[in-house]
Amino acid sequence: MELESVPGVGAKTAAALRELDDPEAALRDGDVASLARAPGISEGRAARIARGAIRAEHDDPGGFTATKRAREIHEDALSLLTERTVTDYAAKRLETIYPSGVRSRIEEVRAFAESAMTREPDAAVLDALSAVEPLSEPGDVRVRDRCLATRDAERYADAQAAIPEVSVEVVDDARQLAELARSYSTVVALDEAFAGVDIEGDVRVEPNALEEPESVVPERVLTFFARNRDRIRAAAEVHRVADLDAPCDLDTLLSALDQLDEDGSVSGDEELDRLTTAVDDLDAAVSTAESVANDHLREAIEEQDVTIEGTDLLSLVERGAGVDSLLQRELADEYAAAVEKARDHLVDALALRDMEVTARRAFPDEPAYPVEHSEDVVARLREELTAARDQRATRRKRELADDLAEMREDAASLVDAALELDVELAIARFADDFDCVMPDLTESEGVAIEGGRSPLLDVPFEAVEPVDYDVEGVTVLSGVNSGGKTSTLDLVALVTTLAHMGLPVPAEAARVGRISELHYHAKTQGTLDAGAFEATLREFGDLVADVDHRNPDPDDGAATDGPAAGTDDRPVMVLVDELESITEPGASAKIMAGILEALGERQATAIFVSHLARDIREAAETEISIDGIEAKGLEDGELRVERSPVKGKLARSTPELIVEKLADDGTDDSDGFYSDLLGKFE
Ligand SMILES: Nc1ncnc2c1ncn2[C@@H]1O[C@H](COP(=O)(O)OP(=O)(O)OP(=O)(O)O)[C@@H](O)[C@H]1O
């Protein structure tokens, strides 16, 4: 798939998407998680791009939700699903599911939804999902204890591009290489020519290093895993509690993760811990060792009775000798014992097994009081320890990175599968919560709903009364005030929208004829002024003309065999709520009759809710079917309503019911006024 051919993908976005391993596959699969890994692409944008790609793949012209109210119904349907996701990712992923008029797209989602509906939403799985997020790529990593070295200017540029995490240095000869080895714990020489050169320090000759950058910078893998450690662990937990097949051995993955610290360093390695502590505690240990020696020596001096013969004293004084030589002569043994104690302390405190020789030299043999360490030796010791620590860390990092690198793709699949499960569980929960079934999606027109219960009603779902309703062609829906006419339109719109999203619908059974566009016009608030009235009329004019244009007259030679190219290709459903409020009652009945006739001729499916059903029928030149939501009667001033519309029945209006009640009351002492009034309704 050509990236730029996807609607909404320009050159800049295409360049960002090319950074992904396989952008074409991510687009083909509507894989929002992968798309959102491209630099600068948010999940919301990734969802829009995925939708564009899906439309391109299915040759879907879009435009299913043709009016504001139709779009609101789609948004409401989507909210019912996204409210049931645990992760933000799943909510965004669900946004790629949109109502479409193209069967191949609808079938694709239906297959997914059907399998999703077999999932068991389990509290432990939902809980585990709460810590799962899409994997994120760590930002730039900078490694300062290693460098690359080469004699070749071209290789220098290649190395900078391939491994930007470390410095690259140009060296002319082994001497310069040796200088580098003094500044860095590890030097990786890229030229074969250096093989066999004997240099002190950790200098490796690795001519293939640029092909395996992760062997030079294992941090690349480690920071990725460290950054995503908790997400991967959570995804593993989801697999465990949901009993999903994992793409790799979870125990191996988890134990490798256990060796990784949050900052990407290796944890749990005793030798590395020893060396790290030794570097950190060196100064403190040296100073304690000094105190140990001095304490010992002070005590020894205090206890010492020094007897010096006069001639000895004289000779010392004549030679100008100081206390040191006295100390050397008289306390040599004590000094040796004190220094030995200091050395032992230093070696033991820092567990300096392999560097014992250097460590012991930190305290000189020559007697002095107070005992003092040698700065030079301690500095050398620090250098040795630091180098040993860094080398050990790098080695352990390499080993761990080697293990983890092999599991990188599996870890990504693990997280993707957990996130995808969240999408499926949202669909399963939606279907469960609203007793949904998969509708039949047919190529014949109309819609038939059995036991439909709209979750969009303002009453708790348990209190929603089931509605049966089927419509073919154009119909006026009449009924008492607050009988549920608007709610029925909402139900038809919702079932139709969900069916075209490929999702289950809240009904016991449903058959939905495939359409390309849903035009749903909500009730207008109050009478429209002339301008707004004209604009509304134009909308219907366009709709009718549009439908007309799609269904050329068979006599004009445009159509040949079979159905006309237009209507069957792009069938529409039109739902309109109380269009009468756009203007005065007499005029609006005529207008509605005209629109219905035109839509009927053009084989649209249409339901017009109106209190003017009788007038519309009278104004229409063709037979227009009328259905009615009937009141079973008034009970304590409240209407008892049969929510399912009765086919072919003009429902009595609320005023008619009230007049009838007054006429039937037996208290008609108004000279037959109520009975006469009732007669006007016949
Ligand atoms: N199937 C149903 N189950 C339970 N309650 C319902 C159902 N349908 C409608 N209702 C209740 O009736 C109220 C009125 O419904 P609705 O607005 O659809 O009636 P209407 O016939 O369009 O009214 P109006 O003629 O005043 O426009 C709803 O707000 C809801 O509380």
From TrEMBL:
From the UniProt entry, list the residue stretches annotated as the region Disordered. 546-569
Q: Which UniProt keywords apply?
A: ATP-binding, Coiled coil, DNA-binding, Hydrolase, Nucleotide-binding
The residues listed in the UniProt record as binding ATP, with positions renumbered to this chain, are 479-486
Q: Does the keyword Translocase apply?
A: no
Output the Gene3D superfamilies linked to this UniProt entry.
5' to 3' exonuclease, C-terminal subdomain, P-loop containing nucleotide triphosphate hydrolases
Q: Name one GO biological process term.
A: mismatch repair
Molecular function GO terms recorded: ATP binding; ATP-dependent DNA damage sensor activity; hydrolase activity; mismatched DNA binding
What the protein does comes down to: Has ATPase and non-specific DNA-binding activities.
Identification of the protein by name:
DNA-binding protein MutS2
Q: Which organism is it from?
A: Haloarcula vallismortis ATCC 29715
The gene it comes from is: mutS2
